[in-house]
Specification:
Elements: H1 2-7, H2 22-26, E1 41-46, E2 52-58, H3 66-81
Length: about 80
């Protein structure tokens, strides 16, 4: 809601701010020995039934590949559609 109000941008998927890192701790996104305040970079694909379908973890010093994430989503949607 804030992004839409502030930047006039609507994101069609859930996005959270995890300021107290409670979600990061719950999902094991803190690498021991790396940092007490920085989480790993991760993408969680959770379907409408709340099932975690895919996890992609990246080191702190490496960016994410949006093309690979889109490929992953396309693949999951295709297999769901065709019951593979």
């Amino acid at each position: 809601e804030n992004l839409r109000q502030i930047l006039d941008v609507e994101i069609p998927y859930p996005l959270i701010a995890d300021l107290d890192m409670s979600v990061a701790k719950l999902y094991g996104m803190l690498h021991p020995g790396e940092s007490a305040t920085a989480t790993v970079r991760a993408v969680f694909v959770i379907d409408p039934k709340h099932v975690v379908r895919a996890l992609v973890y990246y080191p702190l010093n490496v960016g994410r590949n949006v093309d690979e994430i889109v490929r992953l989503l396309d693949g999951l949607q295709t297999t769901d559609k065709h019951a593979c």
